[in-house]
Structures are given as C-alpha cells and as structure tokens.
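haha ok so turns out i had the wrong file open the whole time. this is the CORRECT one, sorry everyone. sequence first:
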Amino acid sequence: MATVATNLKRGQCINYKGETGIVLGLEHRTPGKGNALIMATIRSFQTGKTKDIRFASSDKVEVVHSERQKLEFSYSDQVGYHFMDTTTYDTITLQKEFIGDNVLLLIDGLEVEVLQVDGKPVAIELPSNIELEVTESAPGVKGDTATAATKEATLETGLRVQVPLFVGPGDKIKVSSEDRKYVGRA
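then structure:
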C-alpha cells in the first residue's frame, strides 16, 4: 500500500529501494524556497543500520503491513529463546542472532513486543527500563561521595554496568534498554 510521504508516521514499516525498515523518526522541513521535505530516520531490518532518507512531500512511499505481538520471555536453551503469547499460550522460539545484544537484558517474565512483517519476526522491542538484580560489585569507598563516582557491577544476566558507589550485591536497579546504563534503584 502506497502513501504520500507527508502521511508517514513513527513506527510504520516501509519498503524503500528494495529494503524494508521501520520509521524511527520524522522531521518536516520547509526551506525558504521550494517544496517541503520529509527527513525520515529508518532502521533497516536486513542490515540493522540506521540511515536518514529525504523525501519530497509529494513522494509516494510503500507502507508494509506489520503487526506487533506482545510476548513474555519464558526461558532459553540450546534451541533458542522461548517466548509465550499470554493470550493464546503459544510458544515462539527466536534465535540468538535475531535477539542480538538484548540477551543480556532478558529475564523470566519480561514482556517484550515483537514486530512482524508478513508473519515473520523482524525486530524485538524491550521496555525502556528493565529491573535487574546486582550479583557482584566492589564495595564503595567512604569519602568518594563528593563526586559522581561509580563502580562496575555485574547483574543477574551477566551484563556489566557502571553504578553509584552505594549500590551493592542484592540490590535491584533499573537499566535503560537503549544504552544499557544505570537509571536508578528499583
């Protein structure tokens, strides 16, 4: 289904020059002379890379039918990572290559959204913040609180993040799924 570039929305999937991708951001620009432009930031499903594409306001863009499915992470084994649809109780298995670095953020019961194009999973979206437990961290040194001093901590999934000195083993913290940095205590 084709649409005019001015009707594009964030989160839509499009096909552009043989590549399918998701629209991450849009910016409408109106230069002093000439027609309006649409700058779209698109992440390709084939390469995983993000690029900016400029459309004239009258350009036709092919919108690809996509569906979002909420799934709950159950467990992983040598076959892959198993997710359950909480409405039908069907299990979907995704490979480690598909999940990528997000494996370090998956914990039992975590609800994720899987984007599907033509019934095939193309992207996985995690919640913006994920609560994880600290399993290892060095003790904080007294007197280091005048600056924003941090130390490395290992979380239950094996992820290593920089945390404030007061965070210790057994503490639950929030980690951003975007940049994998400490957000705060849970």
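The radius of gyration is 21 Å.
again sry for the mixup
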